């Protein structure tokens, strides 16, 4: 059921936001697989001219496997739209991303896009961060700094920030940028904009998995086969 929900959200986003002659940022994760499937299908059927910029090794492989045009931010530093998944989305479209370890590249690509659209299944939908996603906020760090950064985060913001360990190799997870990831399990709701900025200022931090004020729309595939669309709340 969750896989079908991912597919529904991905297809809706691609159908509503992809047009001819666009440069598209391609996110990472399991839901993006369906988005690239649909993108490739539309490119073939409608003879669309689409250039794709990946957010990770996984995204790059998906683009190549589907015969889509691969580029990068050197050649295309401005994107028309970026589509990516999320580990959790709150009522204000603040996101936790980076469960797959690609948070820094994902944030760079999203930041280069005129429009950033999120796709997810119903399990990722929350009123507040931490309700559904229990693994914490990923923080990418320079390897030599992981201990002091972990201590600083815990001291200043509470909770604990643990080094993410690999499953199929000995030692920690290593990102596409050759860095480590801390997973900060916070204890209570925060002012995410302020916390995001404060953590990024800690020496040794590359970036966080908090995406604040970046997404302009989220598509959720629901259990009943519908797609729920959420835009940011107007203050």
Describe this structure in words.
InterPro entries: NagB/RpiA_transferase-like, Ribose5P_isomerase_typA_subgr, Ribose5P_isomerase_type_A. It is an enzyme of class 5 (isomerase). This is Ribose-5-phosphate isomerase. GO terms for molecular function: ribose-5-phosphate isomerase activity. This protein has helices at 2-17, 30-46, 57-65, 103-111, 146-157, 192-200; strands at 22-26, 50-54, 69-70, 79-84, 88-89, 95-96, 113-121, 137-141, 160-163, 180-185, 205-208, 210-211, 217-221, 227-230. It is an alpha/beta fold and 235 residues long. It folds into two domains: 1-126 and 212-230, Rossmann fold (3-Layer(aba) Sandwich), CATH 3.40.50; 137-208, Alpha-Beta Plaits (2-Layer Sandwich), CATH 3.30.70. A hairpin with a 5-residue loop joins strand 5 (88-89) and strand 6 (95-96). Helix 1 crosses helix 2 (30-46). The mean pLDDT is 96.
